Amino acid sequence: MNKKTLTITAFALFSLFFGAGNLILPPLLGFKSGSSWWLVVLGFCLSGVLIPLLGILAHARLQGTLFDFAKKVSPTFSLLYCYLIYAISIALPSPRTASVTHEMAIQPIWDSSSLVTSVIYFALVYLFVINRSKVLDVVGKSLTPGILIILFLIVVTAIVSMDFDFSTSEMKNPLSDGILEGYQTFDAIGAVVVGAVIIVSINIKDKAASYEAKKDLIRKAGFWAGLGLFLVYSGLILTGALFSDVFPADVTRTALLSGISTETLGGTATLFLSVLVSLACFTTAVGIVTGTSDFIKGQFNDSNWAYRITAFIGCVLGVLMGQFNVGYIIAVAVPALMFIYPITIALILLNVLPEKWASPRVFKWVVITTIVFSAPDFVGSLGVGLPSYLYLEWLPLAEYQMGWVIPSITVFGLVNLQSKNSTP
């Protein structure tokens, strides 16, 4: 492994993570948090940086596919989990990238329809996906540096030019609000999806690389990509907090980012922001469609036709869903995230633990517990009325929609303790 390979892989990882949600969510969080912006940073980066980084570390250890993440629960569960993850990915975050690109990068300059934007956008995504052997090089060498330069200009200009005079926070629980908003980045899901993309890409580029060499490369690249995400999120949240008295309280996510860009970069704001949004969203869409196509290809005996057909279907679905506005797609995503995110977090954490603490039995009982105790939050997000006792409000963290955490940790400890005591 040389420094050039590490740099390209780290840049590619960062860029595949950094998409529409990563760009538009942090500024509004900071805007609402005011003086509590640092608590929001901690929460947001916990679910949007630490958990995804652990997901990449798990991939470095497994060096398999998404199926390997959940197979210790059972092969059937793992297959269902994979299909659900990929279905959510191509139905929500991938189309959202096209919607954000249209609202922020295309519509302000050209008065064209979202359909035209989506068709051109996903045609380009398809071209990248069917040339997947070049994904790492193109994304890592060309697109990511452009994203970082433009973000740097916006954040640094805001920090240098603004007084550090924050408004009072309107958030009651800034830490938990940051954690839950971090769900909307889809980064934990992104970790298990694009982590597999990175592994396949590395295998294509260097088939002779050893397990240890690939593990070292992925772990180091994941660390640098995670550090980059942390700095970017912190900068965008702080920037939003600095502008908390500048824009109206009901400002939308896209309008706030556009306004901040105009205030910091002046007359060049529209051009810079258009480039930034397009690059950030495009790379994420490529990663999602590529990951989904890789999985379906594996289900059909490595058929290239299955890969191409899946990529085409994913892009067509992106065009169709991309007709909805950003706010609608984010709202629709909430129930899906409340269901799949706790399971994904549990699987990531179990996969980074030593084998002696994460046996198939531990996997099975922890995941079952996570599903059971996160179910009330999922049902509640659908707007279905339930008796209050079913919401398990007595559980620690339940008021923050994380009532599944303590039960899952407790079951993890009990199953390990029971296994240890039963060992002769």
Automatic annotation (TrEMBL):
Coiled coil: none
Transmembrane regions: 37-60, 72-92, 112-130, 142-162, 182-202, 223-243, 271-293, 305-322, 328-353, 365-392, 398-417
Pfam families assigned: Branch_AA_trans (PF05525)
Localization (cell): Cell membrane
Keyword terms of this UniProt record: Amino-acid transport, Cell membrane, Membrane, Transmembrane, Transmembrane helix, Transport
Topological type in the membrane: Multi-pass membrane protein
InterPro entries: Brnchd-chn_aa_trnsp_Livcs
Chief location of this protein within or outside the cell: membrane
Alphabetical list of PANTHER family matching this protein: BRANCHED-CHAIN AMINO ACID PERMEASE BRNQ, BRANCHED-CHAIN AMINO ACID TRANSPORT SYSTEM 2 CARRIER PROTEIN
Entry's family note: Belongs to the branched chain amino acid transporter family.
NCBIfam families: livcs
Name of protein: Branched-chain amino acid transport system II carrier protein
Species, as recorded: Flagellimonas marina
Lineage per the UniProt record: Bacteria, Pseudomonadati, Bacteroidota, Flavobacteriia, Flavobacteriales
Gene this chain is encoded by: brnQ
